[in-house]
Specification:
The complex is a heterodimer of chains A (about 240) and B (about 400).
Chain A: E1 5-14, E2 21-31, E3 36-41, H1 47-54, E4 62-67, E5 70-71, H2 77-86, E6 88-91, H3 103-114, H4 118-131, H5 147-159, E7 165-169, H6 177-192, E8 196-201, H7 204-207, E9 212-217, E10 220-226
Parallel strand pairs in A: 3-8, 3-9, 6-7, 7-8
Antiparallel strand pairs in A: 1-2, 1-4, 4-5, 9-10
Chain B: H1 3-16, H2 18-55, E1 60-65, H3 78-84, E2 93-108, E3 111-121, H4 124-128, E4 133-136, H5 141-145, E5 150-153, H6 155-161, E6 171-174, E7 177-185, E8 200-204, H7 205-213, E9 220-225, H8 231-249, E10 260-264, H9 265-304, H10 306-318, H11 323-352, H12 366-393, H13 396-401
Helix pairs in contact in B: 1-11, 2-9, 2-11, 2-12, 9-12, 10-12, 11-12
The chains are: A alpha/beta (about 240), B alpha+beta (about 400).
Amino acid sequence: MHPVLDVRSVTKVYGEGDTTVHALRGVSVTVARGEYVAIMGSSGSGKSTLMNILGCLDIPSAGRYLLDSVDVSRLTDRQLALVRNRLIGFVFQSFNLIPRTSALANVELPLAYAGVHAKERRRRAMRALETVGLADRHDHEPNQLSGGQQQRVAVARALVTEPALLLADEPTGNLDSHSTDDVLTVFDELRAAGRTIVLITHEPEVGARADRLIKLFDGQIESDVRQEAVGRHAVGAR
Amino acid sequence: MNTFEIIRFALRGIAVNKLRSSLTMLGILIGVAAVILLVAVGNGSAKQISDRISALGTNTLTVMSTSRNATGSSGLTLKIADALDDPVLAPDVKSVSPVVSTSTTIAYGSTSHDVSSFVGTTPSYFTASNTPVQTGSAFSADDNSQGRRVVVIGQTVAEDLFAGEDPVGQQVTVGGALFTVVGVLAEKSESTGQSDANDVAIAPIIAVRQVLTGYGALSSILVEAANSGMVATVQSEVATILDQRMTAATSSTSSTSTPYRIRSASQLLETQTETADTFTTLLGAVAAISLLVGGIGITNIMLVTVTERTREIGIRKALGAPRRVILTQFMIEATLLSFLGGALGVAAALIGAHFTIAGVKPLVVPSSVALALGVSVVIGMFFGGLPAARAARLRPIDALRYE
């Protein structure tokens, strides 16, 4: 079976001349279906840059990126929108919910862009909110929710389209330990359900719960190890 | 994603930012309403002036002598007045009223009044000069030819001399002779260039010449055209007759120019309308400036919201919104805000136009409505749509990072 994610010697260069910054210096990695991968690295190691490229939010300077066997760099703006909508669910560090809009409407948004009818949209959005345990808060606006709840709404929004790949850019970076646990539990459950998850973190205890740990240093992969997940929620323990 | 869904998104976008939406609409509202109202006030005052002038009678001509010493053969005479009433040479003349005018004192019992304009004329003067009689009656042609001493007085004179009494039938003393008051003129609105249009007395010309002015030249001759469209024709007809009559009388004295002057109310009307037009243009300029300021206000608020909206556009793009959908949503938002604001502005202006502003009844000009609405809507759509169009072109990550 082909990998969900296939990155081949991707580089990313910001600026030009004297101010050139090499954020990525040739990164190659493949992620198979159903894997739970954590990418760690210090600040400036290029992990966020890699994540933005994986999420099709940014384009690499060189190298190839195949998502579900599709070469993303050759896609038009329209096709990219389709890929972001159908293949990727992205969770941001700063949640990025649409302000003054209910949790349900936020979760419905990707489905609306996918052209799903209102009734079906509502049903699926409610199911996604149930998955993250926030069905009873569906009519709350982002500023009426705690950080952890907001991030869980964002996770619900990311998985509502049932994407091949769930990407999370420091999903617990802005959360306290209790909320962190809430969000990670959701990821454990998704992992158990067979979803492919790639997340970025700088917290070792978050990285420890993944099946595979990739460490980035100075724009290159320093280590890539499979590990026995620790501290995982009972559901995910199998 | 169909258009209906996008419209719903746009409506929600307007609804969630109530304060910003209402401020934007307020800016457009004020701009539009100011333009429409200011132009309406200018137009209303122009209309008021032309109404006043047409109240004087637009289909009359006044013939006056140009020579200062209006005595002897050089001035206008009754003969000339009679000559103007010529169905062959001047077929479009409806009536000719010779006028002598002087200021004198009218006395009734112990009270007296200095009337500024004591007019001696023929009965046709009343219709020609648009001065109808309110109570009593005008004098007749018979009264004039018989030289009867009767007089019709204006409102000011009546109030001054006969406080509380009915003036009709009373006898007044003018220049040592007794005149019987037969009528009182209807109140005239204060017309342009005259101190008090009601401070007049009108009597048969024969009696007035006998008692007051003597048999010198006439002050003027009032010529009434058959209708207002014939004024120019009548003017040339009258000029032809006058040229014959008066050059014959004043062969050698002043051959350089005509010894008479013809003034028509429509000429006066033209001048006044030009003045009023200037006024309207001035107000229009003020309105244009307020529209500009309003436009800058709209631009400002639309641009200020760009940061927040750019992030939102970044989020939407990251969730897989195609550029077309984002553009359409934001353009619909901008269009709706502009149109709603504009429509409210038009409504406010139309309501405001029902009130009298600075003594002027505003008269809404349809083209100003279209112009004000058009400019505001275009500004709103442009500055609402342009930043959104730019943000929609950005990569999602750049839009998300926009500060």
